[in-house]
Structures are given as C-alpha cells and as structure tokens.
Amino acid sequence: MNVLTSILVFLFSMASFAGISLDIDFKNNDSGKVTKFKKTIETYIDETQTFKIPNSNKIVEIKVTDRIPEVLTDGQKFDDQVLVDMKVIEMVKNERKVIVSPKIITVLGKEAMMEIYEDESRKKPMISLKVTPKKI
Q1: Kind of pairing, strands 103-107 and 112-117?
Q2: pLDDT tens-digit series, residues 58-103
Q3: Model-level pTM?
Q4: Are 127 and 29 in contact (CB under 8 A)?
Q5: In CATH, what number is assigned to the domain containing residue 28?
C-alpha cells in the first residue's frame, strides 16, 4: 500500500511540472514608437520567465499556472484551463516600476488576447498581447 501511495504522489507531483510552450505575439506602443515581436517560450507550470522588450527599457515577466482563483472563474474550472500571469516592468536607473500586471485565463491550445490602453479613450492600445499556451 505504501508503494502505491508513493507512486501516486510522484505521478501527481510530476503533473504539476508539466512543460508549457507559450507562443507570444506582443505589440508595445510607447510614445508613438511601435515595437512588435513574436516569441516562443518553453517553461513549466508556476515557473516565471523573463524577457526584454526589444528597443525598450521594459521587461516582461510571465508565468502560467493551473491554480486559478475561484473568483476569476465564477466557480467554473474547465480541463486544461490555465492562468497566464504577466507583468510589464519599466527599468529606470536599476529601479523596477510595474506598468501593468494583466492576467488572462485560457485553455491550453487556444489563443487569448488582451489590450491595455493608456487612457479611457481606447483609441490606441499601449500594449497588445496574444498568447497561446500549449503542453509540450
């Protein structure tokens, strides 16, 4: 019985370390200067990855988790549903300033999109993000 329990604990713990590939399509509109790039990141559930936005003093921290707070799902969690948690951070004189910290809920294999605007006019997004998480 102890062997069976140990095997089950091992298998469940391995599921939480599932490999994830993130296809990222990012657009940053900073003071009229538009930066677009696509990037694929391989990571694990609950592991934070960091990358620099080209031609900018900003970095992005991104993490995928399957631990989604119930308040974000209205109590309805689906199979393969994940939360993509992102922070856009501006680096000024070695100081970190979080500009935005969006969260996107999506299903593995399905693209999710969000846009962040500078003001209420919603005329031009400051940041556009499309992300597709996939199991690897």
Answers
A1: unpaired
A2: 889 999 988 887 766 777 777 788 989 999 899 888 899 998 888 8
A3: 0.74
A4: yes
A5: 2.60.40
DSSP class per residue in 22-64? EEEEEEEEETTEEEEEEEEEEEETT-EEEEEPTTSSEEEEEEE
Would residue 3 count as lying in a domain?
no
18 sits in which H/E element: none
> 6 by DSSP, 3-state: which?
helix
Assigned domain for 116 exists = yes
Question: How many angstroms separate the most distant Cα atoms in the chain?
Answer: 65
Among 95, 101, 115, 105, which Cα is nearest to 60's? 101
d(CA 62, CA 49): 5
Q: How many C-beta atoms lie closer than 10 Å to residue 77's C-beta?
A: 12
Range of the domain at 55: 18-135
Tokens for 90? Answer: 């501006």
Q: Is residue 10 part of a domain?
A: no
